[in-house]
Write a structure and sequence with these properties.
The chain is globular and about 60 Å long. Strands 1, 2, 3, 4, 5, 6, 7 and 8 form an 8-stranded mixed sheet that branches. The longest helix is centred in the first third of the chain and has 19 residues. Helix 2 packs across helix 3 and helix 6 crosses helix 7. It is of the alpha+beta class. 26% of the residues lie in helices and 24% in strands.
């Protein structure tokens, strides 16, 4: 993971990510995909399905194709500075990206055999996501994804030279659907428990960016999908604005609750800072500090 030294003056791009979850015999598992090595954003790193909010996301006929009214979606995001249609577009982007990147379609009523496959075939034929929904008369299941956190990249990003305002959602994979990488933007995919994913990162088997590290550390506190969703529904999503600084020649990222952060109240469980050493970000107190 190369350290970025550039300052970015452009505003952060709106984006959305869905953390796909499932219950396995050993407990909670999270779906991770490896971004293509040539990608200009986190190339080679393992990420959750997600991407930028497109202009078309706000153009969807939301009264027809969403299962909740816009005022409810707006309230769930806890972003009074945006309007209701913009909030709806964030949800549409999250559901669209989850489908385009992992093949998981949160739409329709009861799971229908071949539904996601038929929708994917229409995408391959060149139809846009909105047109696919209209042609198949599908309603997106916004109730299935729950706001989890909001991450805003600082003006000095640590692992990329781009800024994003990313809303993280959590969701259980619908029954009968299989998540997989798309062999285009992502080249590999895997289901892992949050702790095992972090262990693989620590053992240098996979690469993770700081938001994924901190999110996995947060998820490691939960035994199953129901626990995660209940916790997400019980509170409004916290805003995480990392504040990087240099200490003794090393980059340090601090989070809300850290002594160096402008927000004193801790927003996430686990460490309040990560330091760049050994060509990666890690807690100062070592691996177990992720779970303490």
């Amino acid at each position: 993971m190369e350290l970025n030294l550039e300052t970015v003056t452009t505003p952060p791009r709106p984006a959305a990510t869905v953390v796909l979850l499932r219950d396995a015999p050993a407990g909670l598992e999270v779906f991770l995909m490896k971004r293509h090595g040539l990608s200009d954003v986190l190339g080679g790193a393992y990420v959750f399905p997600g991407g930028k909010v497109d202009a078309a996301d706000a153009e969807l006929d939301m009264a027809v194709h969403l299962d909740q009214p816009l005022d409810r979606l707006h309230a769930g995001l806890n972003e009074p500075e945006i309007d209701q249609r913009t909030a709806g577009a964030v949800y549409v982007a999250a559901l669209r990206e989850a489908f385009e990147e992992s093949g998981v379609l949160f739409a329709g009523g009861q799971p229908l055999p071949g539904l996601s496959e038929r929708a994917a075939a229409l995408l391959r034929e060149g139809l846009g996501f909105n047109a696919v929904l209209a042609q198949m008369a599908l309603r997106l299941q916004t109730l299935s994804i729950v706001p989890w956190s909001r991450w805003i990249t600082p003006v000095t990003p640590s692992v990329t030279n781009k800024r994003f305002d990313t809303r993280f959602f959590v969701a259980a994979v619908p029954g009968g659907q299989v998540a997989s990488h798309d062999n285009f933007e992502t080249t590999e995919s895997i289901w892992l428990s949050p702790r095992h994913a972090l262990q693989q990162y620590w053992d240098r088997q996979i690469e993770l960016a700081p938001p994924q590290i901190m999110s996995l550390a947060h998820l490691s506190r939960h035994a199953g999908v129901a626990s995660v969703l209940a916790a997400a529904r019980a509170r409004l999503p916290p805003v995480i604005q990392p504040e990087p600084f240099d200490h003794e020649g090393s980059r340090v990222i601090c989070y809300p609750g850290d002594a160096r952060h402008s927000v004193r109240e801790q927003a996430l469980p686990g460490p309040t800072r990560l330091s760049y050493r050994n060509r990666r970000f890690e807690p100062d107190a070592g691996f177990e500090a992720l779970f303490g």
